[in-house]
Amino acid sequence: MSDRCVSKQTLQRLPAYLNYLRGPGKGLKKHVSATMIAEALGLNDVVVRKDLASVSSSGRPKVGYVRSELIRELEKFLGYDNSQDAVLVGAGKLGQALMAYSGFPQYGLNILAGFDSDPRLEGAEVAGKKILAMDKLPGLCRRVGVHIGIITVPGEHAQAVCDQLIDSGILAVWNFANAHLSVPEGILVQNENMAVSLALLSNHLKEVFSTK
Amino acid sequence: MSDRCVSKQTLQRLPAYLNYLRGPGKGLKKHVSATMIAEALGLNDVVVRKDLASVSSSGRPKVGYVRSELIRELEKFLGYDNSQDAVLVGAGKLGQALMAYSGFPQYGLNILAGFDSDPRLEGAEVAGKKILAMDKLPGLCRRVGVHIGIITVPGEHAQAVCDQLIDSGILAVWNFANAHLSVPEGILVQNENMAVSLALLSNHLKEVFSTK
DNA sequence: TAGATTGTTAATCGATTAACAATC
DNA sequence: TAGATTGTTAATCGATTAACAATC
């Protein structure tokens, strides 16, 4: 494997490049240059070039990259090409919205089923996906070999759910709950933390108004 | 104002501190130390101390911080204490889930109304909030003085919606669409980008399995 | 050949960490 | 006084940027 160890910053920018490359077909030239991408996304061109170098080796001086080739390389690197199974715990409004979201398959995520402790939800279906009782969780995860768990329960239950997921063999947790999760070494917690985003928004407004 | 210019990294950690401080009431001592927080959250204690120093001046050697005081200072700094109005564009599944989410008020966000171009949604209500036609957007924003816009439309429409929001006086955009948004100087775009999160999750799993 | 573009090596910048002084 | 803790100043580390060499 040549594609190991990319910095987190780089990894966060790669999806934006892919997005741009896939983007509006107008002016679909066969080749793209790092400079073009950088300009469109408001980044430094050397950053883009360096990022792309860690993903692709198809860039050629004077020519640039072949768009379609670069797209494929990015998709492969980001794991969008082979789907990963996931389970979701907490089938409330947000959970159901995620279960129904049709965009995940194209990012290589396949939510197998939802789980909820509320017996009234048991057996219900969202977008063709079953909502199951919590006691079914370990069995399914083990059997199918699921490694991604999505947490959309209220904050106060998040840690308990997280522990159950890890007991069931989950290696990466996507946490939508507003709680800090403690996990053993080797488990990744990716926080989709609304509170952080809101803090950044609010801080921006504060700055805008304080300099006026 | 003493509380200007905190680094982005710091700003992203502050909500986690607040969360921890508010957290499970067990062992609610009156005082907390930076070391305690750092340990609980898996951070370096100097980082925590430095972050807190930029928000609070109530830390006392040997004693630490008064928990309740620190909570109030963090809430104030993060703008969670005085609510900001927001509009949401794109009242699909995700949009409705956000409109219905009851946790936002405690983070100082108040979604006034949803907007959608689909006439069938016009007039509908979600959690007591109206869904309105797009042509009502500028009027409402101007009249009430809304500065935050939330975008939950499909990626291909995101830029057009973003432009409309900015025309309506929006200064900060919370973007859930999978699209890069170009905005004029002085406007903040905060991306809640699922694609980025998924890339990080997938990369983690790749690393786990490649080192085995 | 000349120009555009890639990719690499060195310089700069900012954030984190380490060491230490101040203080209750 | 001694110990714990804050907060500051200096050292380290990593990422970004700048300069340049390689190449089609």
What does this structure look like?
Two copies of one chain form a homodimer. By secondary structure, chain A is α/β, with parallel strands linked by helices. Chain A folds into two domains: 8-78, Arc Repressor Mutant, subunit A (Orthogonal Bundle); 84-196, Rossmann fold. Chain A has helices at 8-22, 34-41, 45-53, 67-78, 93-100, 137-144, 155-167, 194-210, and strands at 31-32, 65-66, 84-89, 109-116, 125-126, 129-133, 148-151, 172-175, 188-191. A seven-stranded mixed beta sheet of chain A has the order 5-6-4-3-7-8-9. In chain A, strands 1-2 form a two-stranded antiparallel sheet. In chain A, helix 1 (8-22) crosses helix 4. The longest helix of chain A has 17 residues, at 194-210. The first copy, chain A, is globular, with a radius of gyration of 20 Å. Chains A and B meet through helix 1, helix 5 and helix 8 of A and helix 1, helix 5 and helix 8 of B. Chains A, B: It is found in: Cytoplasm. Chains A, B: One of its GO terms (biological process) is response to redox state. Chains A, B: InterPro entries: CoA-bd, NAD(P)-bd_dom_sf, Rex_DNA-bd_C_dom, Tscrpt_rep_Rex, WH-like_DNA-bd_sf, WH_DNA-bd_sf.
